[in-house]
């Protein structure tokens, strides 16, 4: 086979496949695969000078070898280096090793030294023949996966480093200085990080503060900023329908029909959105606001602007319950106004009957449905909009990149079928989230997004008091429920996901439901879980919404959107198993009315033990603050951006080296550098993005 021919995927060896799995395909990918840590094999020490717990390399003569059977079969080899002796202990061993360590042989041994009554020992050390040159640099240890031995990976990385084009992509005038010092060259930084000199301060390498690391992190952040900026500029070249606000239209009618006046924040954000809608470029805006801050009304008002301008609006929510809630509320508000104009609201969900769905599709296709509300069903291929002008996504973080892209494409689909437009058109996009994004995340992952924030709650809310209660006080918690119910209040009881098993999850919720039904014979206790048929869920929800059902036991299906102002107590079982943002969302279901409300976080320590430090920090944070921004910030601290971003990043490139908190100065630099790079050095910018992101660049754009 000629050297240039690529082997077919099924011909790849196990380590080759593992390299692919790690995304190490091009020489540059290998060159940028950096060590996790290092081993110092550059020196041989005397046993007499080494300390208990040190990882050391020694050289000496084998003085004794035996296979012992107590407490279990093991090979014991004694080595003397002239200063002291040490016993090597192997529980798995081969005849070849016994031969390698025959009595009288000189060997070089590397491992962790343990002192004790029986003298010095090493467990499963690395052994080779003594003598031979010592390496001059530290030995890198790379992140790897099963089937990819370090030795193989080291060779591959070495080859990648030799072959990769490492010429500079960041010109000196952009690079400048960071923290008052010029940055290292990329080539020098990489050579150093793969094979550092033994006298380097290992701490600096391990905590990534070394100048070589600074260079790599700066490069990585720049690549991320460049790709986001490219996406933003590409979007600005697109066209969207111009949706000007009109006096005397639906917008004003809705304002007049609402039972309350808007908060200052709602007015300001509504204005920001209206300005975007009146432009020829598609809006790409995130509306963030704490649970209960009133995002739905803002969305409804934006929908009015689009409808007034003669276009359709789609509203997509991640669950049927949430979609249903929007539907109920928007229908209350909008349907009478729309009907007076001969227009309709259409409804699309996965569980819909074929006939009903057909009718809805026809309404959407004809353009009679001015407003379309639903779940993922909205983006299915059969759904053809007549004139989609505005797409709104609630709880946007629960949707994946592909789903958002599909919604964006819904307009060009229809326009292609109709008149032949020259420039591709996209609908305006409004994304909503109750999980505020911390500033550093917004600056990096969401750089292609304009952000509006509802930072004010509607008046008349009472803050929710949060209590941490041990599972052992379950009976007291049930008494508290009884007291609330006696006052005509309603209660949520949330059961967690157990070990990711839906079946167990369900049986647990069912048991709790039985327990509470028995303990509270005076109250109607309902059960809601994700496996229930939608019609049943709907029936349970409407009993609870109407106030007939006093207690609702549920799995986390109620997480988003449920709005029952009379609910004043929420009990969350195994609070320690939830993420902070999730707890915050759940807690937001109470405190929606004027009554004093409480959230009880029940926790149980693992059998016989104490609750872990992380779990405790999480629960404490919940009790200490009700500010969604503060909670999001702590959540990011505790969990890191990977989990925080959730579906958005499915399979996508997260930052590998840079840390958004520690490297804020580098992030600021990259943000300023990116537009200059694109304007003044577009070719270098393209090479830089390709070098760092390769095929992953697309993921960061949606
Ligand atoms: P979220 O931001 O969590 O989606 P909602 O839009 O569901 O919040 O609003 C929460 C509740 O507050 C709803 O019952 C809504 O009708 C009500 N609401 C919204 N805006 C106001 C306001 N300006 N004054 C009073 N109540 C409001
Ligand atoms: Mg909402």
UniProtKB/TrEMBL annotation:
Q: Which UniProt keywords apply?
A: ATP-binding, DNA damage, DNA recombination, DNA repair, DNA-binding, Helicase, Hydrolase, Isomerase, Nucleotide-binding
Query: Can you tell me which family this protein belongs to?
Result: Belongs to the helicase family. RecG subfamily.
What organism is recorded for this protein? Ottowia flava
Where in this chain does the record put each Helicase ATP-binding domain? 276-454
What is the protein's known function? Plays a critical role in recombination and DNA repair. Helps process Holliday junction intermediates to mature products by catalyzing branch migration. Has replication fork regression activity, unwinds stalled or blocked replication forks to make a HJ that can be resolved. Has a DNA unwinding activity characteristic of a DNA helicase with 3'-5' polarity.
Lineage, please?
Bacteria, Pseudomonadati, Pseudomonadota, Betaproteobacteria, Burkholderiales
| E.C. number | 5.6.2.4
This one is known as ATP-dependent DNA helicase RecG
Check the record and name the NCBIfam families matching this protein. Answer: PRK10917.1-1, PRK10917.1-4, PRK10917.2-2, recG
Reactions performed catalytically = ATP + H2O = ADP + phosphate + H(+); Couples ATP hydrolysis with the unwinding of duplex DNA by translocating in the 3'-5' direction
